[in-house]
Design brief:
By secondary structure, the protein is mostly helical. It is 73% helix and 0% strand. The protein contains 7 helices and no strands. It has helices spanning 11-19, 22-28, 31-38, 40-49, 54-72, 74-84, 93-106. The radius of gyration is 15 Å and the shape is globular. The two termini are 28 Å apart.
Length: 107
Amino acid sequence: MPNNIFKSFDDENIKNAINNNKEVKEMLNSDSAKNLVNNEDFKQFKEKYKDKSDDEILKDAKSYSDKLKSQLGEAEYNKKLQELKKFEMFLSKDQKNKLNDFLNKIK
């Protein structure tokens, strides 16, 4: 199976961080989060990238990133990227580096 950047995170570390954070628990139990997980588009997304290589994922991510930037405009697009960085508090140093590397590659 090809290497996949989504599978390279330490699941146990993330699980512990989530289990110990009240705001994350509330968000995960919200109707909107449950609707996302049960959403057919989300299921298709997970299936599409399940066995993809890093290069394939990054190529698609860059394409989606460019489309999003053209739809939102530069300022709003950068704001969305900053919102993604809020998840850093739940990540190990290695995971933070991977997230930053990923975000830099899609800019």
